[in-house]
Design a protein that fits this description.
This protein is α+β, with helices and mostly antiparallel strands and 294 residues long. The chain has ten helices and eleven strands. The longest helix is centred in the middle third of the chain and has 20 residues. This is Homoserine kinase.
Length: 294
């Protein structure tokens, strides 16, 4: 029996739609696997009642099939579904690492990324790896046309999760199909700035690089109170604010001493719109890791 801790993640980071991702220090899923004749799934924890246990409809079922590794898989959800914090990716990445260990498949973490991505396709309809890549590799990741590059980074972050549900499928439907050249140039510049900031562990550059005029505005409309929360966080010292993944979580980059104040301010701004939520004072963390062998 193998137990893996698989972290929440944040994808896109504003300017890096379908490309950028970071592993978060918290929250996380715990995935436990044991050998079985056929795959069965048991889900507990945050939002468990909304997650199907049918292997054909669950991300981990697709991973088990891809690895030819039938197992009884227990998922303790710390990452709420429909949160914008890579909930399905955490489960998929955790299962991929755990089953690889359980059956001694010998695959590298990089080789497990596309396998976990197949699990993501069960939820979103497409095998995106912008969440599963950081969930497996840790740090800041760049995924382009099947290639994934990762770098360790240390930037303080605040993730504010409102009690609103935004599905990945709905969030993808509102993404514009075209963009003006000025917006493309702006986005490329911001993405380059964010990448440099990650390589330098510079919260100011990372925050500056989060700004996006193409995808984020469309997705922000799905989040009640987003504009007010963003402005409040910036006024409280955030260096940049954007939608985390498909939303509704809102992600802020900041300096270490500002996380508590920024988190409280974001919650207050949501409360003014009648929306409750919770805050994770976090940072860029490690990828999935085996925490127990029995």
């Amino acid at each position: 029996m193998i137990t893996v801790r698989a972290p929440a993640t944040s994808a896109n980071l504003g300017s890096g739609f379908d490309v950028f991702g970071v592993a978060l220090d918290r929250p996380a899923d715990f995935v436990r696997v044991s050998r079985a004749e056929e795959t069965t799934i048991e889900v507990t924890g945050a939002g468990a009642q909304y997650i199907p246990e049918d292997p054909k409809k669950n991300t981990v079922g697709a991973v088990a099939e891809a690895l030819d590794a039938p197992a009884h898989i227990e998922i303790d959800k710390g990452v709420r579904p429909a949160s914008g914090l890579g909930s399905s990716a955490a489960s998929a990445a955790g299962a991929a690492l755990a089953l690889n260990e359980l059956y001694d498949r010998g695959l590298s973490r990089s080789a497990l990324v596309p396998i976990a991505g197949e699990g993501e396709a069960v939820v979103s309809g497409e095998a995106h790896v912008d969440n599963v890549a950081p969930a497996l590799l840790g740090g800041f990741t760049v995924a382009v046309e099947g290639d994934v590059h990762a770098v360790d980074a240390s930037v303080p972050l605040v993730a504010c999760l409102p009690e609103i549900a935004v599905s990945t499928r709905d969030a993808r439907r509102v993404v514009p199909e075209t963009a003006a050249m000025d917006d493309v140039v702006h986005t490329v510049g911001r993405a380059a700035t964010l990448t440099m900031g990650m390589c330098r562990d510079d919260p100011d550059l990372v925050g500056e690089g989060m700004h996006d005029t193409v995808v984020t505005p469309a997705r922000a409309d799905l989040i009640t109170g987003y504009d007010g929360v963003r402005e409040a966080a910036l006024d409280a010292g955030a260096t940049g604010v954007t939608v985390s993944g498909a939303g509704p979580s809102v992600l802020a980059a900041c300096h270490p001493g500002d996380r508590r104040r920024i988190g409280a301010t974001m919650l207050e701004a949501f409360a003014e719109e009648g929306v409750t939520g919770r805050v994770y004072q976090t940072e860029i963390g490690r990828g999935a890791e085996v925490v127990a062998r029995e």
